[in-house]
Write a structure and sequence with these properties.
3 strands; 3-stranded antiparallel beta sheet; Dodecin subunit-like; 1 helix
Length: 69
């Protein structure tokens, strides 16, 4: 088993649909330029309110990706 080294980046995804969609948006965008994505950790969840209702969600997460060997 080889030893791996990981790098973390912090991203914030947003969505009008919900929290899980905001996470998927951030991961999908990151996967366009990063490879070896292995894990994520939700750091913060917040939202925007308009006219007394949730307008959209924002989720900040750390993404971990394995550096090339």
């Amino acid at each position: 088993m080889s030893e791996h080294v990981y790098k973390q980046v912090e991203l914030t995804g947003s969505s009008k649909v919900g929290i899980e969609d905001a996470i998927q948006v951030a991961i999908a965008k990151a996967s366009q330029t990063l490879h070896n994505l292995d894990w994520f950790q939700v750091i913060e969840t917040r939202g925007n309110i308009a006219k007394g209702k949730v307008e959209y969600w924002q989720v900040t997460l750390n993404l971990g990706f394995r550096l090339d060997d």
